[in-house]
Every structure is written in C-alpha cells, then in structure tokens.
Amino acid sequence: MRRLGLTLALAGLATPALAQEARCFTTDDGEYPCSLEALDEVGSFRTSAPGKPTFEVWMDAPGRAVVGAVFEPGGRSVSLPGTYNRSEEDGACWVSDATAAELCAW
C-alpha cells in the first residue's frame, strides 16, 4: 500500500519544530501512528512514537539522506548504516543502500 510522498506530508509543516500526526513504517516495527516533525527547510525530518525508536532523517543531497535513531528515551542518537535513498515506488519512504532497511512517514 503506497501513499502520498513525504514532500506532501511535510507541506503542512511550514516551519521546523511543528509536529503533526502521521503514520510511520519501518522494516523492524511495521506500520504505526507517529509524530512527524520538520527539522529544516530542505526536507529533513524526525519521527517519534511511544515505544518506538525516534528517527532523524537528514537530507544529504536531493533524494539522499543519512539517518540516526534513538532507541531508548533520553538515549543518544546512533547513525544507521548506509545512505538512505528516496524510494522510487513511494516518495515518503527511504531505503538504506547498506541494509535495505526501509523507513516511511506519511
């Protein structure tokens, strides 16, 4: 099931630090309700949800990002392996070129 791209999902976030309700998907956790927050003007974003890791997706170049995750509340961010590339099938999804792990936010 594919949905609107991340660009459209973030369109409602005019400035960084304003979060909105969203749906997230990760390869490890499946689909779940989450909070989506813009981090900058180029499309970087953070997803968070109770009981799930917090992910920060930082745009490196158009269609490319580096991703960090916080696995415990109050923990430090850990870089995830590889470069994450925007999925051609769903622009709201990012896929690691090192592990094929997928992260989506709609």
Q: What features would you highlight for this structure?
A:
106 residues; disordered N terminus; eight-stranded antiparallel β-barrel; mainly beta
What does this structure look like?
The chain contains 1 helix and 9 strands. The chain has one domain. An 8-stranded antiparallel barrel has the order 1-2-3-4-5-7-8-9. It has one helix at residues 6-11, and strands spanning 19-26, 30-38, 45-48, 54-61, 64-70, 78-79, 84-86, 93-96, 102-105. The protein is mostly beta strands and 106 residues long.
Low-confidence stretches: 1-14
Give the overall average pLDDT. 88
What integer value in Å does the Rg equal?
12 Å
Largest sheet: 8 strands, antiparallel, barrel
| SSE series | HEEEEEEEEE
Q: What helical percentage do the residues reach?
A: under 10%
The DSSP helix count reads 1
Note the gap between the termini: 12 Å
Large-scale geometry: globular
Which structural class do the helices and strands define? mainly beta
Number of E strands? 9
**Overall tally of structural domains:** 1
* Widest sheet: strand ordering: 1-2-3-4-5-7-8-9
Instruction: Provide the β-strand percentage band.
Output: over 45%
Structure at a glance:
The chain has 106 residues and is mostly beta strands. It has one helix at 6-11, and strands spanning 19-26, 30-38, 45-48, 54-61, 64-70, 78-79, 84-86, 93-96, 102-105. The chain has one domain.
